[in-house]
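Shall we go through a protein fold together, starting from nothing but its sequence? Label the sequence line and the structure token line clearly, so we can match residues to local backbone shapes. Would you write everything just below, so we can both look at the same thing?
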Amino acid sequence: MALFFSRVLTRSARKDNARFFSSLPQFPYLLMGGKKLRESPEGKIRKQGLFDPTTEETVYSSEKTFPKKLNGLPLVGASQGWIASFDDKDLTVHITDVYKPWLSSSKVISLPSVGFKPSTHETRVSLSSSDPVQEDFSVAAKFNDYRLSVCRPRWDSKWTHIATAYSLLPPSNLLYSKRDKVFYFTSFKGDYMGSLDLNSNNDFEPEYHHLRLQNRPKIPEAGWEMLDKCFMTNHLVESPSGELFFIKWYTQYIHKEDEDGDLEFIHCSTKRFMIFRQDGMSKDFCYTEDIGDLCIFLSKSEAFCLSASIYPRLKPNSIYYLGPRLGSYDLASGTDRPFNFDRLGEPSPVRTPFWLHPTDPIA
């Protein structure tokens, strides 16, 4: 199987790549649209646009070579700083670090064929390692609403597709826990948390536990009625020290119609985040408005958590989010602040809805 893995790993490097971002630290960035400069035998030469949440401005990478095998492929997920793309022709998944702006060379790891086209518009991907080139690693993905797909490239030449136990509660976001060495996911409504241990001998059978939420916030009845009308998503995230958090994200959509009853536009806004910290003894999740020095990043990539003291321009005790809108949310005050797209200079700046985890050590 090691021969299979060695065949699917490719590298791309150019001398001009090394000129990138020498003056910028490795902060988390949001992927934006890129600029194609020219073609080369190895692939397209382009600059990648990135949104810096600390300055709320767009920056561009230096010239980088994007391998030909990635040309035209949609991006379907992000985890640990790696981006996953899907090839509709041979149904394979490629993971790459080419979007990391601070790297002078890039790698592409091609995984086996999934065997079918994804049936969900929100594919999720999670990696067990931030360095899959050097380390043994596993991949978990959500290509179907009611199944989990897993692959261990150094051991298996195919994906294993696992049916979830609750057919009406499809798994939502995926998270790999470095603390527990398992993949976690929640049910659609957030009533259950599932775990999948690929190192166990139970034929990849997920385990399910009831999600017990304690010390819920005191909100007037009218406030709960308003939240019940919102669209809610659930997220799991693990802090650098191994604390596990469960997050409820409430988004409100307002439709405006013209005189003929035709839809003019849809306005959306984040109404509230609720965050619950797992108790180390009882394993219950307790509501909190104080996560201290931490800040959390939510998008359609795997959620991640950073220490603001290591990245000092980030705001502690806050959530940086990308969903219907892009912004930040202060947990202590409950203040939501959408970022201003007008400053970005593009009509539709967010084309790849993934925060990029700064997994490499800060220089």
